[in-house]
Every structure is written in structure tokens, then in C-alpha cells.
Amino acid sequence: MTDPILFHVEDGLARLTLNRPQRLNAFNADLAHAWAEVTTEAVGRDDVGAIVLDATGPAFCAGGDVLDMAQTMTGGSDIHELAGVINIGIRALTESSIPVVAAAHGTTAGGGLGILLSTDYAVIGADSRIGSLYANIGLTPDLSVSAQLAQAVGERRALQLVLQDRLLSADEAVEWGLVAEAVTVEEGGSIADAVRARADEIARFWLGSAPRAYGQAKRLIRSRPGRSFADQLAEEARTIGAAFDGDEARTRVQDFAAASAKRRG
After folding, report:
1. Is the same domain home to 47 and 115?
2. Whole domain around residue 90: which residue ranges?
């Protein structure tokens, strides 16, 4: 049996690959449970400083596997339970202090949008399309879409996306701030490979710079809604103090000070 999600760690980089290409990486029970397990492991490992989330096949993630729902689920309680399992992985990524980049080629729709929103930096292809489409089958947003979409693009745009049968183009997704970059590819190349290569480049940049600092910066932004303004200022002060005592900052601060003194001299 093929693993529904692939997991590999090398040189500080964890790669999570959705692997149900025949179903456009839509979630069934097998993928849901594997997703919860793998994401939890990835964010809990001391040797992981950055995470890449990508996918096999022609699409990133089509959300929930509607065919599987129709054939195997007897009622709403089944979908409720499955969403809870997938939410374990979404929370693992968003609440961690490890930066996550998505390589989201092809189409992202439905719950796949929530999976995309659980990453911190998203790269898509110039031919990618992104949408909600829940109401097309009479369902409502889940997997963090209602929790995170408005924070990402603003309330009015979030409403436009969930209240219309609409797929954003790559250019629109970048303009809205839903994703960071849309990459192109030269003739004969693979857009999926180009998207993955750019995502890897970003993750390697984090790892080659100050991964703990980038991770804490991500955590500060992600966790802000749970604090008052005063508490956020206090948490910033605590975090930068802790960072100053760490190896990443110690070397870099000393190097910066030495270079500044040399320029003045």
C-alpha cells in the first residue's frame, strides 16, 4: 500500500509530501491520520529547523475526498470526527516555532485552502488556481479556512472567495496576499519542479541563516491573536532577550559590531 503522505528529514529540513495524486491529494481517513501523525512528529523533532510541504501529481490539494465521503461516511458525525483529526496537523504546523513553506502547484481548493493557510510562506505556479468551493457541494468551510482566510486577505476578500464559485488565478492570489510568490518555468520544464525548487530555496535560506530566530518570529505573529497588545509587547521583549543569549544571535551580533567598528575606523 502506498503511503498517503511521505516524510523525510535531511540536514534540518523536513519534507512532507501529500501522496494521493490519483485523488488530487484529497483527504480521506488514511491521509487524515497520516497527516496528524507526521506533522506532529515533524514539529516535535529537535533536528528540524524548516519544513517544506508539497504534493505529488497535478494538484496540491483538492480538500476532502468527496467520493470517499459519499461511499464510506454515514453521517455528519463522521466528517466532524475526520476534520478533528486533520485539525491536529493544522494546529501542529501553525502553533509550532518552525517556519513552513508550501510548494503548492496546480489547484488548491476546499479544505486544501486550509492546508495552504497552515503554512507560513506559499509558493505556487503561474498556472495555479485557488478557491473555496465548499458551497458547490452544500458544505461549509473547515480545516481553518474560516479561522485563517480573513487574517490572510481581509474580511471582504475572504467573503468574496467563500460566497462565490470562484478560483483565483496565480496573479490574483499573489495580489491578495494569499500566497507569496508565483513562479514560471521555461518551455519544456515542469512547473511542479520549479515550484518545489523555489520552496526548497526558501527553506534552505532559513536553515542557512538563523532558523530559530525565523521560527520565533513566525510564532510571535501566529500567536498574536491570543494576547492583548500589552502582553504581546511583553512577549516580544522576552523573546528577543532569550534570542540574544542564544548561539545564533551571539555570533551574528559580535560580527555585526566588529564590521561596524571596522567601517568607522
Report:
1. yes
2. 5-208
Place of cell 512532507: 16
Which residues, at least 6 apart from 8, have a Cβ–Cβ distance to it below 8 Å? Answer: 14, 15
Same domain? For 68 and 148 the reply is yes
Predicted confidence at residue 5, as pLDDT, reads: 98
Interaxial angle between packed helices 247-264 and 211-223, expressed in degrees from 0 to 180 and rounded to the nearest 10: 110
Question: Are both 195 and 229 inside the same structural domain?
Answer: no
pLDDT of residue 162: 97
Are 137 and 226 part of one and the same domain? no
| Domains identified in the chain, total number | 2
Cα–Cα dist 210/145, whole Å:
30
Q: What number of other Cβ atoms are within 10 A of residue 76's Cβ?
A: 9
Q: Any alpha helices (H) in 13-132, and if so which ranges?
A: 29-44, 66-72, 76-94, 111-117
C-alpha cell at 5: 503522505
pLDDT in tens, 56-109: 999 999 999 999 999 999 999 999 999 999 999 999 999 999 999 999 999 999
Q: Do 254 and 153 fall into the same domain?
A: no
Q: Are 71 and 34 in contact (CB under 8 A)?
A: no
Cα–Cα nearest to 90, from 128, 137, 147: 147
Tell me the C-alpha distance between 112 and 60, whole Å: 7
Q: Is the dihedral of CA 236, 220, 208, 47 positive or negative?
A: positive
Residues counted in the chain: 265
Same-domain status, 61 and 88: yes
